[in-house]
Amino acid sequence: MRVAIVSDIHGNLTALDAVIADFKTISPDLVVHAGDLVVGGPRPAEVIDRIRELGWAGVVGNTDEVLWAPEKFAEQVQRAPKLRELLKALSDEAAATRELLQAERLAWLQALPFGWQNHGIGLLHASPGDLWQAPMPECEDQQLRATYGALGSRIVAYGHIHRPYVRQVSGLVVANSGSAGMPYDGDPRASYLLVEDDRATVRRVEYDVEAEVKYLLGSGYPRAAWLAEIRRRGKYVPPF
């Protein structure tokens, strides 16, 4: 069974279409997504429509949830005051995204589950019971076991941190898909996971970053220059 896991598209339709084209090369039996589909990019409706047309199952992400639960921003400011500027930027993007999606697409997003398990794979956006915090690639083995061991899956995959990796921890494979639309690891190519049997590998896909940036800058989407810089670098930079 060959399963592709795509996460953190963030409204980047150009990157999503490149990933879909890459599937013709690897022919996955199943594609699932790990959330954060739309906030952070100028074509959220098109991204959702594409995923729905293809019939991908998946889970909800934190920047999906804030579209119908904006009070989460205030909760996170209290939890992590240093992230106030980032959360303000996300709030601006969420407001614009909500208008672009309209009610029916929002209802589809809101119906997504928090977790998905099948074929020995456990899929989450971040951590069990928490859409906002997840282990980083360099964390201790103990943290991975404590966070994901109780799920009972042979392979656990998640998104959220935008930095792909694969680790083996006491018989458990923990893997991060990275971000299809907004990588943070210094590589601007789209990232996703390919899971086959008990193995997970990170796959990178070239896409026309400048074409997406041009569309973004001309779209009127909030914080467009900041988002364009992240896409070009493939790396997080503070909001401006």
Task: Please give a quick description of this structure.
The chain is an alpha/beta fold and 240 residues long. The protein has helices at residues 13-26, 44-54, 62-65, 71-79, 84-110, 141-148, 209-217, 224-233; strands at residues 2-6, 30-33, 57-58, 115-118, 121-124, 155-158, 165-169, 172-176, 190-196, 199-205. 38% of the residues lie in helices and 20% in strands.
Describe this structure in words.
- This protein is an alpha/beta fold.
- Helices cover 38% and strands 20% of the residues.
- It has a single domain, classed as 4-Layer Sandwich (Purple Acid Phosphatase, chain A, domain 2), CATH 3.60.21.
- It has a five-stranded mixed beta sheet. Strands 4-5-6-8-7 form a five-stranded mixed beta sheet, with helices on one face.
- Helix 2 packs across helix 5.
- The relative contact order is 0.18.
Strand-residue proportion: 15-25%
Give the CATH H-level superfamily: Metallo-dependent phosphatases
Q: Structural class per helix/strand content?
A: alpha/beta
Helix content: 25-40%
* Number of DSSP-assigned strands: 10
Compute the average pLDDT. Answer: 97
CA-based gyration radius:
17 Å
What is the CATH architecture assignment? 4-Layer Sandwich
Largest sheet, strands/sense/barrel: 5 strands, mixed
Oligomer: single chain
Weakly predicted, low-confidence segments = none
The CATH topology name reads Purple Acid Phosphatase, chain A, domain 2
Spatial order of the strands in the main sheet?
Answer: 3-2-1-9-10
CATH class type: Alpha Beta
Number of structurally distinct domains: 1
Order of helices and strands: EHEHEHHHEEHEEEEEHH
The dominant shape is globular
